[in-house]
Amino acid sequence: MDSKLKNQKLIFNWNLYIITDEILSQGRSHFDVARAAISGGAKVIQLRDKTASSRTLYQSAQKIRDLTREHGISFIVNDRVDIALACDADGVHVGQNDLPAAVVRQLIGEGKILGVSASNLEEALQAESDGANYLGVGPVFEARRTKSDAGQPRGLELITTVKAHCNLPIIAIGGINASNIREVFRSGADGAAVISAVVTAGNIRKAVSNLLEIITSQKGES
Amino acid sequence: MDSKLKNQKLIFNWNLYIITDEILSQGRSHFDVARAAISGGAKVIQLRDKTASSRTLYQSAQKIRDLTREHGISFIVNDRVDIALACDADGVHVGQNDLPAAVVRQLIGEGKILGVSASNLEEALQAESDGANYLGVGPVFEARRTKSDAGQPRGLELITTVKAHCNLPIIAIGGINASNIREVFRSGADGAAVISAVVTAGNIRKAVSNLLEIITSQKGES
């Protein structure tokens, strides 16, 4: 199977996409969050840290790479292409303030997954033409203070609009939790990315397995 | 000429190594500082920014890459291997809190220059065995508040000690200015890196040409 097909198959398995955040995780490290999320059934982990030194980030990435490899889980690094390459992550996720997607694709080659954040249709179409493998679409709802650069919530309409015009898998993001995650899938998202709903939970494993149960029952209905 | 020899020849031409800093540069951009420093005679520019977004840093790096290429000047990116690769810089400089030097060498290959900061002999020897092309040795003197992670000044003895045990070119760093730069070369440094002494100057071009004059007259004496 070529890497493009393999990547696509992986991404469509990403019902629930967990993004780590050490500021919100109440003393638990990126690794702690990843480990608990995996034990709850997560199939993909994104390491996101905009403040750590490169050395610290690299060390976190290495540990999560070992863990995810051991469990057959996808591992994505946010923003830092060098860290992703250094620890042989499965891919990189970039926002509109990170390296341009087309540049990232050149740096990582065809074998690695490229995710791109899009907050409107124009950005989504640009990402598609730049070689993205999936889109992070949002913010859908009002997010907690995890991403200062996240912008105003765009509502479920953004998912519908992007779905109608782009062929890439859509991972919805922004304020998604147990009470609204059904709507996200009903609107056409292929997966839901969560930060606060998981990393602030007292029991991360349970929060993940609970969200996965809701997704499974929602998908059964549709 | 193979890339290793070519790099070595370049580095020995780096009498004065200019590091940009937008926090200290009184409203002048990285590009402004680079342009003025080049007009003053600088032969190498390092772009250093620990706070900018990846997109902003990439845009600065691209502009400085174009400028330095036009003038035949070496261009080094601090810390961010991905940015260095994305803009085809001549090399990367890493400190002890950045990606490990051996990992950086794997990411950049043999063709690009790798500089490593060393604040003691052990770090210098490790950098040499990890594949560094030159060492940033210091802090020699008390630096102004440019690098919060710079540590205590080590004095000129550090240069002498590293010189005695390592074969790599030594770029001394930390609080170097017009009044103490002679001592740095007398102690065996191959070059001097400056931040404050240049980026805080009202006339950056003049500050650079003045430092270069002192270096030339010092080298003439020795």
Structural notes for this entry:
Two copies of one chain form a homodimer. By secondary structure, the first copy, chain A, is of the alpha/beta class. The first copy, chain A, has one domain: TIM Barrel, CATH 3.20.20.70. Chain A is 45% helix and 15% strand. Chain A has ten helices and eight strands. Chain A has helices at residues 3-11, 30-39, 54-71, 81-86, 101-108, 121-130, 156-165, 181-186, 196-199, 204-221, and strands at residues 16-19, 44-47, 74-78, 91-94, 113-118, 134-137, 170-172, 191-194. In chain A, helix 2 (30-39) runs parallel beside helix 3 and helix 2 crosses helix 10 (204-221). Chain A is globular. At the A-B interface, helix 3, helix 4 and helix 5 of A face helix 3, helix 4 and helix 5 of B.
Task: Summarize it.
2 copies of one chain form a homodimer. By secondary structure, chain A is of the alpha/beta class.
| Largest interface, C-beta within 8 A | A-B, 21 and 21 residues
Can you name the CATH architecture of chain A? Alpha-Beta Barrel
CATH superfamily membership of chain A: Aldolase class I
General form of chain A: globular
End-to-end Cα distance of chain A: 30 Å
Question: Runs of chain A with pLDDT <50, length 5+?
Answer: none
CATH class of chain A: Alpha Beta
List the helices and strands and how they pair.
The structure is a homodimer of 222-residue chains.
Chain A: H1 3-11, E1 16-19, H2 30-39, E2 44-47, H3 54-71, E3 74-78, H4 81-86, E4 91-94, H5 101-108, E5 113-118, H6 121-130, E6 134-137, H7 156-165, E7 170-172, H8 181-186, E8 191-194, H9 196-199, H10 204-221
Helix pairs in contact in A: 2-3, 2-10
